[in-house]
Amino acid sequence: MGQNFNSGIVIGSGQLVGYWGQIDRSHLLTSLLQAPVRPLGKLPLGCSASGLDLDCWVRLQDKNLILGREPFGRMPLYWTESDRVIWFSTHLQLLLPLLDRSAIDVAGFYGYSCCSYVPTPLTPISGIQAVAAGTEISLSLETFTPVTVTKNCWQHSPQQLTDEPTAIDRLQGLLQSAVECQIQDLSDAPVGVLLSGGLDSSIVTALLVKNGIKVRAYSLDFGEAGISEYPYAEQVASYLQIPLIKVPVSPKLVRRSLDATVRALDSPYGDGVTVPLYLLCQAASREVSVIFNGEGGDQLFAGWTNKPLIAASMYGGSPDLIEPYLQTFHRLYGYESQSFQPQILDRIESLSPANWLGDALDSQRAPELLHRLRRASLMLKGAQNIHPRATNLARWHGLKVRSIFCDLPLAQWTFGVSGTLHLQGACEKYILKRAVEHLLPPEIVWRTKRGMGVPLTAWLFQELWSDLGTWLNPRVLERAGYWQLDIAARLVSGKFGGTLQGRRIGEILWLIIMWEQWRIQVLGEPPTSKSWRHPFWLPQPLWRLLQNLKLIDN
């Protein structure tokens, strides 16, 4: 006989797993766990990546199970129903043993190919759903039909602050309050900061130092192949008089760390920064237990792609902005017929990417264009990509990760600040720069953002060239049944699409590599044996020569 059992457990570094309902096979819960456990007892329960406010929670209400997440999306939360039992976990892999077969969800795969992450509430696995950031899902044991309630935290304020001195003063106070909130439980032990040398991570570092926190900074070094940001990180560390640890990233280290990075990420993330960030967390974990990053600043203060999107709104004839926004991901949206095998094309024909973006870009939620774009970045690129992958990479190494810009009062205040103070002429994040210019050297505050220069194309065309023959071997792709067999060769030879060139080629190749490695490392699908007939087994110059002579296929 089954029993009505409510259980939740925290395992490892703040992971949450549990079940609710009629269950007569409690051994399944034990089989899910491969780490020491600490029982939490009856519901309600919650979990935090940072040790502060809850990032996700589970509770009972009116005989319904409520699964919820905070709006920044720091901690993922997944659920599935099996034999009238609802299972939930912050780790996708812990739910896989409950399924008879881990079948790929085609909508999730398509979303990944467009965005480089799987848009919530989709997951890459059929039968498992994700709770979207800033929402609660109510589930009844009788119907198991999810009812989703969205908490609109990013609400446009009718009263827009336009006075610059007032905005500067208020922002400085909010930044200080955010820091105080996130350092209140720290001991005298040093904390780590992932310092890129960009504005946001430099602000976080400066605020921590100002508040008397012992800081050790960690910065990536890509060598001669990448666009080096390390000199800026060095300048910040010198200015603030803190130690800076250089973390080298080379093709050899990327190759060696790829499998572990994929497992640490849990769900597939196709950005090229993931392995470097894995190495950064790995280095920090040897010396500290808490790390801070600068993630969230771009979303809050109108960094990134806002100027081209504003131009698209004015001149592009697309008032809903969905099409232009999809283009900002620079992935495979619009290239479906050149990317997927026929059976996948047939199944995605009825899918609309607008469903993943529509709520985030809803003009009724944020009538002012810049606030709408910031809201979309918070809900899409921040909550579904940047923050959850940062949490997963950190907790893999036993770290707690904190983001000063993930502060609700600060974030909500920004929606009451006029867009002219966020974006002034060509200057992005203007009000933030004005508020912190007393904390950092002016060349750090006012320089143009460049982003992390991961040299994917250079690596894949040189040191990792032969690895393409292993990772994207046509025999592997044929067996998997998703990508067209010659997609890698067409990308490398420049015969995939006229607008895909330079760094974009490496980004698309890496997107496909990460998906294929995720299938192997997380789903346990065996890789197909190597095919020595694949052209990438030839040295790159010889491959180019034979291709030009038309002695090999493209």
TrEMBL record:
Give the Enzyme Commission number: 6.3.5.4
Q: Does the keyword Ribosomal protein apply?
A: no
Ranges for the Asparagine synthetase domain? 171-518
Q: Sorted alphabetically, which Gene3D superfamilies does this protein's record hold?
A: Glutamine Phosphoribosylpyrophosphate, subunit 1, domain 1, HUPs
User: Could you give a GO molecular-function term held by this entry?
Assistant: asparagine synthase (glutamine-hydrolyzing) activity
- Enzyme kind, highest EC tier: ligase
InterPro entries per record: Asn_synth_AEB, Asn_synthase, ASN_synthetase/amidase, Ntn_hydrolases_N, Rossmann-like_a/b/a_fold
Q: Which reaction is catalysed here?
A: L-aspartate + L-glutamine + ATP + H2O = L-asparagine + L-glutamate + AMP + diphosphate + H(+)
Pinpoint the site Important for beta-aspartyl-AMP intermediate formation. Answer: E295
State whether keyword Amino-acid biosynthesis applies: yes
User: Which biological process annotations from GO are given for this protein?
Assistant: asparagine biosynthetic process
**Entry keyword set:** Amino-acid biosynthesis, Asparagine biosynthesis
Q: Which domain of life is it from?
A: Bacteria
Name any GO cellular component annotation: cytosol
Family statement drawn from the similarity comment of this UniProt entry = Belongs to the asparagine synthetase family.
Q: What is the recorded name of this protein?
A: asparagine synthase (glutamine-hydrolyzing)
